């Protein structure tokens, strides 16, 4: 196994660029994969096939037939399996070859030869455990609380940005940019344009928060690792946004490859009864467009930055959250590389 990873050049730098192993990631919105349908997708620099079994369960396989390496995604969906178009080899959702029509009784039958990732669906998205090796066992994934609370109503926003995945998470660990990049936003135009910050540790990550302002802008963010990386933040809502609790965002980012990221933002609000209906109506008819404007500002900024921009940075006190996250990820990448390379 160590020789394989050496051949792939899977050192700490490569792991950091394409995604930390042995943890859960958001893959795509659930509606990307229709019942009876298949979808090819790239994550962590690798191609994968998503398909639903006849009972609606999602499966995720490496998009490579175990016979000659042809893309399974070009084949046929057969209910509980897929059939490669090249030579008809059939593979089930566990990655096991179940039939070789061209040679019944072939030794390939019954062998688990295609990588299959554990998947589950949460909050309208497909999640997958990205294993570091065939021996990796899935860790428990603690759901972000806003996605499991029945009193919270949320909308999933999905986009793909031409920027490294670490940029997207670092952007969320930088609350001060809200007062500048988003100062024309309906929800981030209030508050001071200067602040002091602190890090507050938790048993699953940390808060990065302003010490001299709360409830006026993008004033705090919480980073958590509960089997997967996610952030939670709260942004005040003006009265024009309708009744209900504060507006929150749960964010996740998944590497497509070294320079592209699949970004997921669940916009949520704790509302019930008629307030829930009003909130959902207002979101779909007005607020969603406003939020896309904010996301576009982030996208344009991050895509315009050089991929090695951190090599020439001059950071200051507002960047403590970014520094903390970088140290955490670098340490994990180094430990995983050491374990994989032996």
UniProtKB/TrEMBL annotation:
Keywords: 2Fe-2S, Dioxygenase, Iron, Iron-sulfur, Metal-binding, Oxidoreductase. The keyword Metal-binding applies. This is 3-phenylpropionate dioxygenase. SUPFAM superfamilies: Bet v1-like, ISP domain. Residues 24-128 form the Rieske domain. GO terms for molecular function: dioxygenase activity. The keyword Kinase does not apply. The lineage of its organism: Bacteria, Bacillati, Actinomycetota, Actinomycetes, Mycobacteriales. Pfam families: Rieske, VanA_C.
């Amino acid at each position: 196994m160590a020789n394989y990873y050496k051949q792939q050049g899977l050192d700490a730098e490569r792991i950091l660029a394409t995604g930390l192993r042995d943890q859960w990631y958001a893959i795509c919105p659930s509606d990307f994969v229709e019942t009876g349908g298949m979808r090819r997708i790239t994550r962590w620099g690798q191609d994968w096939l998503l398909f639903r079994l006849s009972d609606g369960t999602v499966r995720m396989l490496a998009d490579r037939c175990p016979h000659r390496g042809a893309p399974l995604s070009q084949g046929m969906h057969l209910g509980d399996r897929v059939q490669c178009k090249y030579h008809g080899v059939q593979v089930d959702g566990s990655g096991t070859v179940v039939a070789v029509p061209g040679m019944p009784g072939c030794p390939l039958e019954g062998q688990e030869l295609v990588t299959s990732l554990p998947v589950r669906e949460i909050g309208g998205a497909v999640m997958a455990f990205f294993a570091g090796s065939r021996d990796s066992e899935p860790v428990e994934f603690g759901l972000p609380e806003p996605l499991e609370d029945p009193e919270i109503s949320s909308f999933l926003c999905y986009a793909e940005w031409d920027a490294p995945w670490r940029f997207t998470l670092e952007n969320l660990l930088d609350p001060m940019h809200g007062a500048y990049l988003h100062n024309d936003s309906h929800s981030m135009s209030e508050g001071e344009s200067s602040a002091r910050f602190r890090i507050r540790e938790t048993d699953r990550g940390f808060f990065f928060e302003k010490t001299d302002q709360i409830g006026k802008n993008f004033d705090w963010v919480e980073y958590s690792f509960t089997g997967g990386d996610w952030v939670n933040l709260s942004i005040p809502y003006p009265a024009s946004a309708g009744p209900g609790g504060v507006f929150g965002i749960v964010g996740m980012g998944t590497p497509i490859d070294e320079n592209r990221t699949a970004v997921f933002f669940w916009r949520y609000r704790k509302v019930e009864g008629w307030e829930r209906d009003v909130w959902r109506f207002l979101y779909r008819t007005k607020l969603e467009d406003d939020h896309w404007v904010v996301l576009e500002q982030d996208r344009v900024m991050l895509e315009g930055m050089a991929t090695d921009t951190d090599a020439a940075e001059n950071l200051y006190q507002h960047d403590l959250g970014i520094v903390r996250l970088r140290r955490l990820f670098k340490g994990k990448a180094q430990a995983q590389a050491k374990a994989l390379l032996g």
